[in-house]
Amino acid sequence: MATIDSELECLNELDWQPRCGMEFESEQSAYEFYNMYGRKMGFSIRKYTFGKNRRTGEITSKIFVCSKEGSRSKDKRDVLTIKPRAETRTGCGAQMGIKIDRNKNKFYVNHFVEMHNHPFVRQECTHMLPYQRKISVTQAIEVDLAEESGISLKSSYELLGRQAGGRESLGYTKRDQKNYLRYKRQNKLAYGEAGCVLKYFSDQTLKNPSFFYAVQLDGEEQITNMFWADAKMIIDYGQFGDVLSFDTTYIINKENRQFAVFVGLNHHRETVIFGGALMYDETIDSFVWLFKTFLQAMSGNAPKTIFTDQESAMAKAILHVMPSTYHRLCTWHMMQNALKHVNGVFKGEVKSVLSGFFYEIEEESEFLMAWNHMLDEYNVHENTWLKSIFDLKEKWAYTYVRHAWFAGMKSTQLSETFNATLKEYLKSDLNVAQFFMHFERVVNDKRYKELEAEYDLLYRLVNVKINTKMLIQAREVFHKGYIFGVST
């Protein structure tokens, strides 16, 4: 390529217009020259026909034509096409032909037709011509990094254009960038969705043998559910897994595939991820398999408490697999369901009506009295949803759960904040390859927040609000212990 570039620079200085007898080291360098000429003039070119030695297969001649040469053949689908492609060909006869000189082993221009039958593109628009556009290897890396960082196509194209000194200097259009990303995604899914997932798991295992994954197969040997956890997730669970939240409310694609995630809180009160799962169905058997697989990854250590949403199949699976684990319903999920089922019944004030039962009433007698008063006031004794949650009151009502141990975790804390985070990173139109790429961003973001919390703990002084000698001295001893490695 360096030879072609230097040759074109030389030709550019001497004569940038084609002429008969002009010589080139290869047919590719001739093509590059005619393409450069087309850009200067304002038209695009394409390869038309060639001649070759039948015995050796060697290219002996070639013709390059204006892209507007000829006419498009009639498409049989024209009748069914709602938006047919715009016609671009005008039967232009401009072309340049080359032929090999065997004595010199070079190609030379043996004929050249200069006249066109159409106007040229303005110089400000020549970078948009089809054969003038190309994404280089370096640019492809930048495009990939932008996508992996969650930057939208529009924003990344604008950013890369600014770096290049203007979009016209990029060498490709936004559509080219979009097509490149689509082609890349199609290649990743070449072996189907299941093949893509298994390849991802295999690649992760090669990076770290402690990466854990498992897939569940149905009777036809098709993947139904899958679970995975990297080494750091497994270590984190060993330290912070006494209380966890299991959430299946996030849908990752148009086929309603459920993404399930096990999360908890670390010693900085930051969300920590223990594992993820893709659920093809949500039957009792699927949840039993998932919870057994989760415990297998975590060396059989069941959590003391698990928060979930209101799901009967899930509850039965937890009781079967983790009978000693306290199952508590997440009040955040319950409030979301209440907004769907009884918001109209409570005249749009469902939160104020139910919040006391969720978070405030301590005595059972007071709870039952207030509940019956609510049923009378709004005449909802026969409401099916209220009946169903009352039967489960031991799993959510503050009256019954306040004495249980939850490591200071609020039932709304994990699911509400983590669902908000997922919405920032994951979209419903992502394919499986994109999902894993962006889920890694979620994990990395959470782990970096833990580093920030560690930094704040070790670098910034503890804020003593009570100005007493004892607390001031305790603060000094605490920080000296960290500085000199003394156990405090």
UniProtKB/TrEMBL annotation:
Protein's name in the database: Protein FAR1-RELATED SEQUENCE
Top-rank lineage group of the source organism: Eukaryota
Organism: Dipteronia sinensis
Taxonomy of the source species: Eukaryota, Viridiplantae, Streptophyta, Embryophyta, Tracheophyta
Database matches in InterPro entries: FAR1_DNA_bnd_dom (IPR004330), MULE_transposase_dom (IPR018289)
Residues covered by the MULE transposase domain: 243-337
Span of domain FAR1: 32-121
